[in-house]
Amino acid sequence: MPRISVEVDGVTYEDEVEPRLLLVHYLRDRLGKVGTPIGCDTTNCGACTVLLDGMSVKSCSLLAVQADGREITTVEGIGLDGRHHPMQRAFHEEHALQCGYCTPGMIMASIDLLRENADPSDEEIREGLEGNLCRCTGYQNIVRAVRSAAAEMRTPSENPSESEVTS
Amino acid sequence: MTALGEARPAEVGAPRRRSEDARLITGRTRWTDNIQPQGTLHVAFLRSPVAHARIERVDAEQARRRPGVVAVLTGADVAGEQGSLPCAWPVTEDMKHPDHPPMAVDEVRYVGEPVACVVARDRYAAVDALEEIDVDYAPLPAVVDMERAVRGEDGLVHEGLGTNESYRWVFENGDLDAAMRDAPVVIERRFVQQRLIPTAMEPRAVLCVPEGEEFTLYSATQIPHILRLMLAVVTEIPEHRIRVVAPDVGGGFGSKLQVYGEEVLCLLLARRLGRPVKWTESRSEGNMAVHHGRDQIQRLTLAADRDGRIRGLKVDLLADMGAYLMLVTPGIPILGAFMFNGIYKMDAYSFTCRGVFTTKTPTDAYRGAGRPEATFGIERMMDELAAELGMDPIEVRRRNWIEHGEFPYETIAGLTYDSGNYEAATERALELFGYDRLRAEQAERRERRDPVQLGIGVSTFTEMCGLAPSRVLGSLSYGAGGWEHASVRVLPSGKVEVVTGTSPHGQGHATAWAQITADRLGVPFEDVKVLHGDTAISPKGMDTYGSRSLAVGGIAVYGACDKVIDKARRVAAHLLEAAEEDLEFADGRFSVRGVPEEGRTIQEVATAAFAAHDLPDGLEPSLDAETTFDPENFSFPHGTHLCATEVDTETGMVRIRSYVAVDDIGKVVNPLIVEGQVHGGLAQGIAQALYEEAVYDAEGNLTTTTMADYLVPSAADLPDFTTDRTETPATSNPLGVKGVGEAGTIASTPAVVNAIVDALRPYGVRDVPMPCSPERVWRALREARGEEAEERGAEPGAGGGLGSAQAGGDQ
Ligand code: FES
Ligand code: FES
Fold it and tell me: The dihedral of CA B101, B107, B109, B114: what is its sign?
């Protein structure tokens, strides 16, 4: 079995994996990173979106071996410093989630969207998230959330005491 | 803590951000598939690749020998213990209800029906082994078309029944013949409610953990309480030895209101093997095996006077049950019987529904369940009537709807609508929409023969929700009541736990129920925790579906709070040495009337009730109470939705230009959650109008098994919505709430289709079948032109009202 070395959310893992093991199953079943869910088996829904070297990918469309030597960020690896990522906060503030199943994928895809375009129009947000399906929200609040996160990320607040999400 | 005498801002009505979100945005979730006890085995199902066949032989020897495989079981192996999946709604006494084994034993009746299962060390090994199972199928005729099926033309789905008609259900009120006789206007239409796949984003998953003779079954279900009872009935494992947990559930929309074979089989496998077993559905198997929704053929006849007043309505339905009756399959179209009359007055009404077996996936509840189908029928007919009379569709509705002053109103379908104000919602919607301006633009585009035509669609609707009154459900032969349970306990430290029988999957109950409790008990929102979805924690309940949670479950929470306050009052009176009648309770504090400084907070009372050193005689320690709520009546949200579409007559492309939804859902607990529900509902209803359809070929193969084929709309496919509310409180519950989960879905489908047809009416188009894909729109245009050309004896393309635009479709 091939050996791989992957950095996931800041931790390096050395593992032997079956060549056909999907990255998403590696993350979930081997590393216990269950924050990334699976919604389909045809790479259509985007629920499994993670960042691979900073760029969003659908982790069900990659094999674990393809991640060898690379860096992966999941929803569990953002906002690690005890504060939520601005995108997480925006999803909460704008009520951009209901069941939340699509949410990790949406958040990761949205972060990548803003990396490419820091000030997207609503239409660009809608186009940019085309590969991520949500069955609950009708998308309007997701668009709002991405817009508001974009505004916040363009002008990082001076004062790091942003409100925390209640739990 | 607020200072004495300072009122706490009300929670109910405030757009409180959801407490659920914290774990959902960080991935600290408990989806069933995330739970994996040590030693969990994985199950995979072999599913029928053919629509209808006798199973001649199943050879699983090879599969059993594969590495990692622990067990392979066929339907025959479990025939003695698997029971028959339940149908809890025998709508007529003579309803045909065939046996429904969780795993097929000697015959398969739809593509995707489980035939065998493999239990293995991991999911890859389980799926690998499926390929080694050999099944000989002796083909039987596929029965795909409902209209042919009911006439028995393609053979029988269940040979032993001698018919494909499961039941015939009839409702009549008023003299329909008289109403129709000599009516100046009679319109007949046939509408198809296409088959839909609910497509919750979380696929189903089941994990069953055995502990001796006891079983904990985790399932992505909407109905842990009902599921537990039904699992006990089906498997004969005693109910008290089964615990069902619905952990985080990623959407349901009715699809998880079910007792699925896979749940039964996981329980049986865990019992046989004595180890935890888990099954997680793939999307492609889910599309075949999750129950589908809608799938009706409606024949409607509407008789009216020339001034637009409706005389009578006749509804003839064929409803596709699929191959078997599942939990509430036969009842879904019957719910429509009460809604086909919509918000309108009429003299006579007749409704007949025939439930038809086909060799397709069973149908059952899908968001709105029976009411979207009915609303579509009547709202399309209202537009057809308007067109026939050359009247504005809003005006036709005005002439027929129940007026604000007429409530409570007993409808022709026998329901009593408690309250409503259709005028107010409609006025507000027209204003937000800019109705007159858009009509002017439409006229202008028609005038200039713009290839892109503007259409305006309206839908004024109501629905029955708050599915409860147990007596009414009983009168409809539904197998259970519709009450809901809640308990509230103020912990010794003064924090509050609320236990609810509802089982949310995205609706935000933890937040909304805490808002109700915080207001009622006068405690901080943060001090309240809501527990749900686990039969060991929440012992009673009827779960979440049909927009019942707030109007029934939320009211139970409210009622339990009241009981807690009653008990607390007795303790407080005792502690303050005052008479109960002399105590006031406000902002979480009991005080002696006229002596505000003499008081006890409810937290202090809880501590005293816990210590129990000094309680009134006969009072039990601790401050808690439970209650059930069973309302007298349904609740009836209503609203007016308006949609403007731009339809390209050359390509058939439809674009929603604007969408306005004004809903009246009575009092609102959390406007943020409400708006989210409306948005999501609209997306689903619009998706039915424009995108989604479960398609079967002539052999009964489902051709939309993946998300590539079954078109769930993305952000790029949907518009921004304008939403607003009017507020006419329900009178059937103390909070005046009605329910919101399904309104958007129910109202939007006819609004969109009405708008498309309105755009194309000058071309002679009177209907476009759903989903109104560009191809279908284009075809409808072409057919309308062809028909017109024939009627006029002219060349195709020469007739019709809009010459230049008409040339478009033929290229
Ligand atoms: S699970 Fe990866 S795209 Fe659907
Ligand atoms: S929030 Fe449920 S799928 Fe997006």
Answer: positive
Residue B393 and residue A59: Cα distance in Å, rounded? 50
- Chain B neighbors of A106, CB-CB under 8 A: none
| B372/B596 Cα distance (integer angstroms) | 54
- Span B173-187, mean pLDDT? 96
Residues of A in contact with B248 (CB under 8 A): 99-100
Residue of A nearest to B284 (CA): A41
DSSP B688-756: HHHT----B-TTS-BS--STTTS----GGG----EEEEE----SSSTT-B---TTHHHHHHHHHHHHHH
- Ligand 2 atom 4: the closest Cα is on which residue? A134
Rounded to a whole number of angstroms, the distance from the CA of B398 to the nearest CA of chain A is 30
Q: Indicate the domain borders of chain A.
A: 3-77, 86-158
For B695-727, how does the pLDDT look when each residue is reduced to its tens digit (9 = 90+)?
Answer: 999 999 999 999 999 999 999 999 999 999 999
**Residue A85 distance to chain B (closest CA, Å):** 9
CA-CA distance, B277 to B279, in Å (whole number)? 7
- Residue B519 — very low, low, confident or very high, per pLDDT cuts 50/70/90? very high
Q: Do A142 and B682 touch (CB under 8 A)?
A: no
- pTM for the full model? 0.95
The CATH code for residues A3-77 is 3.10.20.30
pLDDT value at residue A79: 86
Ligand 2 atom with the shortest distance to the CA of A106: 4
Whether the Cβ atoms of residue B629 and residue B552 lie closer than 8 Å to each other: yes
What was the pLDDT predicted at A158?
Answer: 52
Quote the CA–CA distance of B774 and B481 in Å, as a whole number.
45
Q: Answer for the pair A108, A91: CB distance below 8 angstroms, yes or no.
A: no
Q: Does A132 touch chain B (CB under 8 A)?
A: yes
Kindly give, in sequence order, each residue whose CB lies less than 8 Å from that of residue A109, ignoring residues fewer than 6 positions away. Answer: A46, A49, A56, A128, A129, A131, A132
Nearest to A165 among B22, B201, B708 (CB): B22
Token representation of residue B799: 């007739």
Ligand nearest to the CA of B33: 1
For domain A86-158, the question of CATH label 1.10.150.120 is answered with yes
- ipTM comes to 0.95
The token pair that represents B196 in the structure block: 């839909």
Spatial separation of the C-alpha atoms in residues B147 and B168, rounded to whole Å: 14
pLDDT tens per residue, range B404-462: 999 999 999 999 999 999 999 999 999 999 999 999 999 999 999 999 999 999 999 99
